[in-house]
TrEMBL record:
<dbReference type="InterPro" id="IPR052526">
    <property type="entry name" value="HTH-type_Bedaq_tolerance"/>
</dbReference>
<feature type="domain" description="HTH marR-type">
    <location>
        <begin position="30"/>
        <end position="129"/>
    </location>
</feature>
<protein>
    <recommendedName>
        <fullName>HTH marR-type domain-containing protein</fullName>
    </recommendedName>
</protein>
<dbReference type="InterPro" id="IPR036388">
    <property type="entry name" value="WH-like_DNA-bd_sf"/>
</dbReference>
<dbReference type="Pfam" id="PF12802">
    <property type="entry name" value="MarR_2"/>
</dbReference>
<dbReference type="InterPro" id="IPR000835">
    <property type="entry name" value="HTH_MarR-typ"/>
</dbReference>
<dbReference type="InterPro" id="IPR036390">
    <property type="entry name" value="WH_DNA-bd_sf"/>
</dbReference>
Length: 156
């Protein structure tokens, strides 16, 4: 097996494990009575990571249709988790940004999920914990290039 084949196999396994983790998170959220969709949390995460975005770009980044994003944003605005801010490049447009309350809500949601997952990982060794930390850093570094840039609006 070549190095490229080994890497391809490892990445395939990573995708499969990640899918199972996301499914578990959906189940945990449902079992704990979460009324917020994963799309809402994903949207807050995108905004926290990338900064203010127009609704269309946010829809693309969150992998939902623009009408769905418009509804998501309305709900997040109502909760005070996001806010509309002026677009410095176009006075007619606005962008959506995460608010301080949104940052807090997202951190609490992530901490809650981590707490639920903790018993399933409580027995890992210090070496495995270090490997997990290195893996997170490695993935974060390499997937950054996969995130699309905000689309540029064409002036008419």
């Amino acid at each position: 097996m070549t190095d490229a084949d080994a890497l391809r196999d490892a990445l395939s396994e990573l995708v499969q494990v990640n899918s199972r983790l996301v499914q578990a998170i959906r189940r945990i959220a449902r079992e704990n009575g979460s009324v917020d969709s994963l799309a809402s949390w994903r949207t807050l995460g995108v905004l926290q990571r990338r900064g203010p975005l127009r609704v269309g770009a946010l829809a693309d980044a969150s992998q939902v249709a623009q009408p769905t994003m418009t509804k998501l944003v309305a709900g997040l605005v109502e909760r005070g988790w996001v806010e509309r801010v002026a677009d410095a490049d176009d006075a007619r447009a606005s962008k959506i940004d995460i608010s301080a309350a949104g940052v807090t809500a997202l951190a609490e949601w992530r901490a809650g999920l981590a707490s639920v997952l903790l018993p399933y990982f409580a027995d890992i060794s210090e070496g495995d914990l270090d490997a997990l930390r290195r893996t997170v850093t490695l993935l974060d570094t390499h997937i950054a290039g996969l995130e699309p840039a905000e689309p540029q609006e064409v002036a008419s």
